[in-house]
Amino acid sequence: MLSKLGTIAMVGLATCVSLAVVTAPAASADGLCTVTGDNVKARTGPGTAYNLRATTYAGALMYNQGGAWGDNPVDGRWWVYGGLVNGADDVWIRSDLLRCQ
Predict the structure, then answer these.
(1) CA distance 18 to 87
(2) 66 burial class (0-12, 13-18, 19+ CB within 10 angstroms)?
(3) Are 34 and 59 in contact (CB under 8 A)?
(4) Would you indicate the residue range of the signal peptide (predicted)?
(5) Chain-centre distance for alpha carbon 67
(6) Domains of the chain (ranges plus CATH)?
(7) Are 68 and 46 in contact (CB under 8 A)?
(8) Which residue from 5, 17, 38, 67 has the fewest beta carbons nearer than 10 Å?
(9) Chain segment 9-67, per-residue pLDDT in tens
(10) Is 79 helix (H, G, I), strand (E, B) or coil?
């Protein structure tokens, strides 16, 4: 009985998270982000000089664990630190390729 209740709770939580991600306008720390582009490169640090850790796709989810950080003040690019849901941990993705709650 308890496992059925846990499953129902998780399904309900996933539904709520999906709705929040779709309507969320801007990045914030400790949230859930949706990747908005295809073949998005997740890197080991905040910038293109860092190694590629994974490539992801539109619709993939990322835990935002550190907010956004500036990499290059000349081009104004910001990077979000976190982990891909069902994927690589400790990755950085450009904030303009994410929609975060």
Answers:
(1) 18
(2) middle
(3) yes
(4) 1-20
(5) 10
(6) 2-100 (2.30.30)
(7) no
(8) 5
(9) 444 444 444 433 322 334 445 689 999 999 999 999 888 889 999 999 999 999 988 76
(10) strand
